[in-house]
Amino acid sequence: MKLVCETCTINRYVPGGKRVFLKTILAIGKGSEKKSDETKIMLITTANKTGTKYGAVKNIAKIFTRCLDEGKATISFIVPEHDVQIKSDKIQLTAFLKVLKLVLTGGRPSESGASTKSTSEPPALRLPCLTINNKKTSFLNSKNVLSTKCVIRNRKDYPLKGFSRLLVSLQISDVQLSRFDSQILLLQKLQSLNLSNNCIKTLPKSLGQLRLVELDVSSNNLSDDGWEWLLESNIQSSLQSLNISHNGLSYLPINVVYAQSLVTLTAENNSIRKLPFAIWKLYRLRVISLAKNHINGIPETMRRMRLEKLDLSDNQLFENEATVPDLRLADEQATQHLQPSSLFQLAARVVISKKLPYAYPACVPFTVLETLHRTPLCGCGKPCFASKVYERAKVIVLNCIQTILNMNQRAFADCVFCSQKCLRKV
């Protein structure tokens, strides 16, 4: 049994010292070809390529597995007084410890072809003889061993045996990928995923179970995607940067407003005409790049946001442009059946009047939450469930450090008014 991992050996007899984790091949096997020789555990590291052998039977004081879910464990040996700390993939480490448990609690090593004396005895473990060769030592020097970053820009570089479970950053670009690779969902440590310049049409809902910090899906074909993966709690709490540029989007997906940790949103080179009124609920959002779209007005609620940069260049914010039809919902004329019923509106009014928290889908029913997100706010802060949206009603000043607009353009806002009193303030 062999495990490729990182280890740090601590001498309990000599306290202190610097703890450094090294690339390691950790193996269980027979110490030699002699039948009487007992099972050994051998460590081959980049610093000690000759290997260090520890007796396994009656030589292990304790195995610490409290952090096994994080891919960490510690084996405490009696002679010598060493604690070997291990960091590896959770599944592979669990399999290694199961073999070690069989060695310690009943499984007896045997040579190939040996048979058990009785059918009631547990099957004998067939452990190889521990040997060291140049192939093993050179394997540790490879850049891909225990690497946490993988970049694929060519089809021939695609791994045949799957991705390393230790990956933190993965980039698959310019390979004409037509479907999302389900192997990516197994990378529980993944934080940065770049799938730009491919032909992906949909993203699976299970993508939201990963705790991604950065996601780049620019230059794909996601115009018909349901964006249901943004409804998963894991990615809502972790995602900080999202790039959905060059995807032929006619509107900014409403589910984006559930990404409460989002700091940077990039949606350039699409066909976006309107932004959801609920975009102001992204309290941590600081950078928005919407260049080269068809936006002619932004929600008045964006005045509530504290932005560092807003890029609206190459849009349709000209002063002499005529107003456009009401686009409170994306393609409203074709989706009248998706309008919330009066029952949902009544429930939403109760949520507002009782001041119930509804930041996350678990707080209130999702249909009510969806209604609240689609409902625009008046300038005074009151939700307007049935009011008309006035396109390009006024020019607003945003709370933004850097606003990028083309010449002869201004930030026109789409507004709603809860009463004649608020309407007279325009």
Outline:
The protein is 13% helix and 22% strand. With 426 residues, it is α/β, with parallel strands linked by helices.
* Content of β-strand: 15-25%
Mean pLDDT: 83
Gyration radius from CA atoms, angstroms: 30 Å
Count, helices: 6
Strand order of the largest sheet: 8-9-10-11-12-13-14-16-18
Terminal residue distance:
75 Å
Question: What string gives the helices and strands in order?
Answer: EEEEEEEHHEEEEHEEEEEHHEEEH
Which stretches of 5+ consecutive residues score pLDDT under 50? 109-120, 321-338
By helix and strand content, what is the structural category? alpha/beta
Helix percent reads: 10-25%
Shape: elongated
The profile of the biggest β sheet is: 9 strands, parallel
Report the strand count: 19
